[in-house]
Amino acid sequence: GVKKRLAELKSSLPEGVEIVTVYDRSDLIQRAIDNLSGKLLEEFAVVVLVCLAFLFHLRSSLVVVITLPIAILAAFIVMHLQGINANIMSLGGIAIAIGAMVDGAIVMIENVHKHMEREALTDKNRWRIITEASIEVGPAIFFSLLIITISFLPVFALEAQEGRMFHPLAYTKTYAMAAAAALAITLVPVIMGYFIRGKVLPEQANPLNRGLSQAYVPLLNAVLARPKTTLAAALVVTVAGFWPLQHLGSEFIPPLDEGDIMYMP
Question: What are the Cα distances from residue 63, in Å, to 55, 60, 168, 180?
Fold first, then answer.
């Protein structure tokens, strides 16, 4: 809109006067919007492929595909009410949250499939099984997503320029994760009741699941049999991480002397 208005003003300018744009972020913002749109499409594709690979059930993936844009829309609604612009940082917050937003729905779907392995889903027992499966993992899913939601709260402690820069990112990431947590225990169970139908393949009948189980179960049993050794190894790795941390460089901008002039683009 600004570019269109400037073009209209050119005809009314005095002779020899012209408007020269020296700073234009529109292309950068458009690339950020395109990047977010691309990430959404990639996320949809990955969700469908993961559900097909591990669950062998296409209809189950539609539950996630439906809830993800609703959670993002909810974040945009809160952004609008709070007056947060859709700028590069705020859109980046949503892009960061996309990967974790689908976790609750996927875990809920997988648990419904577990119940369907024990009892076939029919019109009579459909909502009972959906309710039992949702109640079984719903609280854990909700609070796990809530923990991820509050993980960006320390960003709000930033002040001055860094605070103004990163606050929109923290706001939108928090709103998106909060919406995903709420939808995981409200909308997702209802959509599962309508979409999850047909035959469900048992977990061990899937060659991918069977192969992964054979790989990680022995390792899991080994670390559980030696808890002290596992904790000691984790402690050693943690302490060892402090040495490279102390040698990381940092960016330092020296203060300007009196009379210095700093030009910014």
Answer: 13, 6, 29, 13
Tens-digit pLDDT profile for residues 178-213? 999 999 899 999 999 888 887 777 777 778 888 888
DSSP E strand boundaries for 113-207? none
- The b/e string for 143-176 (b: 16+ C-beta within 10 A; e otherwise) is ebbeebbeebeebeeeeeeeeeebbbbbbbbbbb
206 secondary structure, DSSP code: S
Query: Cβ(108)–Cβ(188) under 8 Å?
Result: yes
Between CA 127 and CA 221 the distance in angstroms is 36
What is the per-residue pLDDT across 138-170, written as a single tens digit (0 to 9) for each?
Answer: 899 999 888 888 888 888 888 778 788 888 888
Which of 263, 226, 265, 234 has the alpha carbon at shortest distance from 23? 265
The whole-angstrom separation of Cα 213 and Cα 197 is 26
| Contacts (Cβ under 8 Å, ≥6 apart) of 18 | 10
Closest CA to 3 of 182, 228, 19: 19
Angle in degrees, CA 91, 60, 98, rounded to 5: 15
The SS3 of residue 190 is helix
